[in-house]
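User: I'm preparing a small set of examples for a lab meeting where we compare how different chains pack in three dimensions. I only have the primary sequence for this one, and I'd like the structure in token form so I can line it up with the others. Please keep the answer compact; I'll paste it straight into my notes.
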Amino acid sequence: MPYEPGGSGGELLALLECSGPLTRSDLVRLSGLPRTTVTGMVGDLISRELIVERTTGQADRATQAGRPPRTLASAAPPTVTAVLSCGRSGLEAALVTYPGQIIARLSSTEVVGYQAADLASIAKPGGDLVEELLIGAGCSRDQLGCVVIGLPRPVGPGESAAAVAERLAVPVHVENDANLGTLGEAAFGAGRGYDSFVYVTLGHNVGAGLVIGGQLHRGASGFGGELAHVQVRDDGDLCVCGGRGCLAAIVGSSLLDYVRLSNEEQLALPQILALAAERDPGVRRVFADLGRLVGTPLASFCTMFDPAAVVVDGSLGAAGQYVLAGVRESIDRHTAPVVADSVQVITGELGDRAKLLGGSALARGLRLAAVRGPRAHRLPHRRDCLTPRNTMHSVARYGARSDCRVPRPTAVEPAHLAETGAVDS
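Assistant: Understood. Below is the structure token output for the 425-residue chain.
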């Protein structure tokens, strides 16, 4: 019989596409379907040549008993997501599979200066990059599932890129670039297993993404996480957002503008990061100051929302340790002791791949939601936490507590962020 997108067979196919090879037990656990249903559907899918079964690994060496494990995989070529990341230095494009493999990437400076304001301007250069990537990687147009565009500005509800969709004849999804970095770290990096965390991006401009209760928080108007436009000085300069004394008005339009304060020479960012690796005193000081400056509004957020972690942009190389120390210092100074003790300040694991992998996480979440419906939006079970939050009533005020961290998923169980793009378990 044909498999409808919402059917059990369609869900198993989607899980294999999104997670890569899985065993039958993995499919039972990830789908929540009865084992007998999974067994029957798998047999039917194999007979229809929609999935294939392979033998991998060895039997249990300790007992020399049992058969080698057998995994299932989609028989079709992998679906790829084209991610277009629009930055101040240009437009970067990449082809990424649902499980997070970056097949190819290219960049262009053709759209610098106007890409964030005018999505239609991205259609031609972005479409050309995607087509060049498909040809270079040996992928057919049928393998292109969708396009995800990351913009260095707030993205309002329902904002679309019709010109790009028409150019490439696939669905296009538009997202804030910091939110994409957040999704990347949540699904593939340092944010895995955290039910709540803040991701801070500093690579090109200041921004943040918020995960609250296992969901990406965009806000009612799409302005959620706009750390750059938090007021840090009452009498500061006017900002492009209309506010006064915003963090962006102090740091400047880019990280490069700020860190150049430490050196009279007009060095490029890679040169400044190299000086940080050499422990140049001036560069170390300016990055630590940046961490303290950014950490002050982050401390207020931590007090209000009590996240389990603050994940700092991992693309800063050796300079990241000084920013991290500055953020940690501000949080310790400006938050309640119980919050300061529980929140972890850690470095992102993905570096400049965070936004690209975040596009993959967003696309695969939408793929699963299409076949799962409402079940795709369930939150992690509280029993997975080391200390459920409802036990906090029995903990003395300012006493020790767990950060309620959900255990990290295995390679075949991607982290849960259903609506935002990561596969849920």
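A couple of notes for your slides: The radius of gyration is 23 Å. Confidence is low (pLDDT under 50) at residues 1-6, 377-425.

User: Perfect, thanks.
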